[in-house]
Amino acid sequence: MEYTISGQALERLRKTCKLRLTISVILAVAVYLAVLGFTVWVFFLGDPEMGARLDAPLSEKLVTAVGGPIVIAVLAWALFYWLIVRPEYDRFNNLFKNKYVISTIQEIGVFQDLSYQPRGGLTHDEIRSAAVVACGDKRRFESEDMLSGRYQGLRFRYCDVSTAHMRGSGKHRREEILFHGQVMHFASFDEIKKSSGHLQIFEKKLASTLIGWTAEHEIHTENEAFNRRFRVFAANEHNAFYILTPKMLEQITQFADQADAQIAISFCGSSMFVAIDRLYSILDASFHVPVPEQKQSILKDVELLRRAGELLILEASTFHKREEG
Fold this sequence. Notes:
By secondary structure, the protein is of the alpha+beta class. Helices cover 49% and strands 23% of the residues.
């Protein structure tokens, strides 16, 4: 039987991590106070024979006496964190990702063939071809923490994605993040159902930098509320209206409400890509939040994954009903 870890055991590890973090902060404060005491003594109480610059301006003394210890304390805390906190957090995070998240999702019973690959993810070429978000420079593209499996026959992949590119020139060049969040990819179980070319749906609140290249035609649906919230681009207008049924528009709106973040959806061939623009991931453990609360976040995001799959299942079902009619 595959080894799993209980929420109680993981909670104990989380508390240990938090305790170690507190200890590292206390040690850094102790270093700060010790260095501060020494600099105050040197600059204000020491004698010239020990190198004290008693004749320096008061403002210079204050800046050096206060600023110096802060810098040293920050460096000391970084060292303490690396030596005391990081090893325990890595252990906690590894168990959280590899054991707890998977077992929590399996408990729901709606997904099959679940697997997790810490270094797996979608490729830059896949994101560029999907046109669900701006893909940025290939050298600055990152994708990891891939969860894969099946939902009602649909193969899916769910992973963290970060895209960026360089702006400016010469010494003023800087990296600009285009997208940071999660991307879901669903491969249809039914090859009959396909999108003719790209069909893209973007929330209007999405920053322009998050939207990459778009299909040729921008279209408007018969749902004015949907049009006010989303922009739709399609390579084939007739095919787009065939896919975006009133029920589908309703489902997309409900999905966006549940996501509580900006979303983008791209139909391409028999696949669908869904992007959620947010900083956190269900696969990242936090030692500041109790494990039971993190479990609720996992369940909420898994429901989001399920609802995304329902979009494609709904569309395939609608297609078949039309064909049978």
